Amino acid sequence: MNGPGPGQRRSRLLLAAVVGIIVAAVGIWAQNDALVGVNYDDGIYALLAKALADGDGYRLTFLPVDLPGVKYPPLYPLSLAPFWLLAGSQEAALFAMKLANGFYIGVAAGLFAFLLMDLGIIASSLAVVLALLGFVAGSIMLVTSGLLSEPLYLALLFLSLWLTDRTAVRPTPARLFAVGALAGLVFLTRSVGVAAMAAVLFAVWYRHGRRSSAIAASAAALVVAPWTVFSLIGSSRIPELLVPIYGSYTRSYLALVAESPLAVLEVGSANVGAILQTLGGKLVPEAGALLESLIGAALIVLAVLGSRRVFQTAPATATYAWFYLLPISLWIFPPFRFVFILFPLLLALAAVSFLTLAERAGKALQGKWELPLVRGRPLPRLAILALGVLLLVHQAYLEIGAVRARVWDGAQYAKSAPGAEVVDWVVANTEPDAVVAFEFDPLVALHTGRPVIPNNYVPVHSWYGRGDPPDGSLARLFAELGARYVAVRRYIPAATGPIDRLMGDYPGGLELLHVTPGGVLIFETDLEVLRAPDVSDNDMGGVEE
Predict the structure, then answer these.
(1) Model's pTM, two decimal places?
(2) For the purposes of burial, counting CB atoms within 10 Å of the CB of 477, is it exposed (0-12), middle (13-18) or buried (19 or more)?
(3) Mean pLDDT in the chain?
(4) Measured between alpha carbons, how far is 148 from 139 in angstroms, rounded to an integer?
(5) How far is Cα 250 from Cα 302, in angstroms, rounded to an integer?
(6) Quick one: which H or E segment has residue 524?
(7) 3-state secondary structure at position 162
(8) The predicted structure's pLDDT at residue 260
């Protein structure tokens, strides 16, 4: 692959830096004062980082049992750990972490723009536009404004794809090792990064052969092996009732397959429908489920056509989206957040498809249907390009509106306010070692220092309507882990339903103590009632006292 000249490379780097600065500024501005923990995973990341900073290892130290953090790859918490050491207070540490996420998303956007330009996927001007459209977006700010790992993941992903596709015809072993190691780091940021590893290793094999692919694969394996071994060994220590939340993804998935192999098809059909509707909704919001799904499918088709055009020059970039969509189509989590971070790449691939269609229309109809003022440029080609411009303008209007309205604030504040009420009550009314159960248990742990557990048990994510808990499972959870207090948002049926059933099955097991102004019910438990014979005869499956 012939690289650009020094002057061209400098101009591309400058443009990418401008994109990165703009997006980083928006990412920092997007931060709000919602409590860390409202997105659940953000609380876990902060607490894992604290455990590392405190020298406690990669452990879930906020639970009343000693458990390893096997579900969450370690690179993002590692990047946050220094803030716990350097900041003078928890508030300052969390604030700095949020600013870091804004910086990470700026780096990701800049690298994305540079990837598009430097690999010759699209012209520099269009690369800048697409990068800004893709990242100055409400959906991207949603995953940036909390301590979520997506911004760092995207930064490492685009660097990995660029390094792979920029690898020379005869790469040195050192270069191949770097390619594989970087792909491994993507995986250590988010488990779905296995798609990046697959795309990178496939591209190396396609371009450079089996030997080169083996070198890159060996480097990736060396990087991910310690975490993989840690996760496999630690997974066996997670009690059965905590597996859906704190166990490994693999163990949760195998439990679903064991329940019913057909459940995988049900999950897949639900996820594919959600993926298409989410993509269509990004382009034409509130068009209705059917039309949004059709528009999403059209975007996928255009992106596939764009991938075919890009494949010869950038095979890793061209194939990553499809390696990525496979696991999120089958996995047992709603795919919305996963789709958000794929949208910029799909948009760029669809733009390549539009340009290709316009180019082919121009060649096929040269000399036909031309306007007098633009001879040599057939009308169909101009019409395709004009449609593409209109779509970009429309998307810019939507994204700018969403960002100006700070659409991510609403959901976060809606969870932060009741969470703050629970935190205040727990601090004022409970002993330091009292175990509290809440829907956002990391939030309570982070802001009170109390040991916490979930207030619910669902074997498979409730979004799929499967995995009804066994009789007495919630009582077992509270009894075995010693929950002294239970908080639940009474206006959320999915939250109150299991608590209502528990109170019906175990009269006197929960006693209402307090109702917060925001409608959170706080109960005190009677653990002796919850340890009734039909409960205590079945242990937790490995809880260590």
Answers:
(1) 0.92
(2) buried
(3) 90
(4) 13
(5) 33
(6) strand 520-525
(7) helix
(8) 73
